[in-house]
């Protein structure tokens, strides 16, 4: 089965953008809860640091995560298609 690399990359970039916006919203609304969750996920004590959430940071993060996720997914699908050639 072939994967359409461009569509897979675009779908991944859109998904990353949605998750970035949701995560940024939660950091803005419940910063303490998100810091606790991040501490548990990273297996690190992060209680002494704080969030640096700014509108420009949200936009840059949205752009960067979407772009890199899209490129990664496109490359993944391209390599997968090369490996499954008959």
How do you describe this structure in short?
The protein has 86 residues and is mainly alpha-helical. The protein is built from 3 helices and no strands. It has helices at 5-29, 31-42, 55-83.
Question: Which structural traits does this protein have?
Answer:
elongated, 86 residues, mainly alpha
Task: Characterise this structure.
The chain is mostly helical. It has one domain. It contains three helices and no strands. The protein has helices at 5-29, 31-42, 55-83. The N and C termini lie close together (10 Å). The model has no long low-confidence stretch (mean pLDDT 93).
Write the layout of secondary structure elements.
Layout: H1 5-29, H2 31-42, H3 55-83
Helix pairs in contact: 1-2, 1-3
Run of helices and strands: HHH
How many beta-strand segments?
Answer: 0
Strand fraction:
under 5%
Contiguous helical run count: 3
Nearest-angstrom radius of gyration? Answer: 17 Å
The multimeric state of the shown protein is: single chain
Number of domains: 1
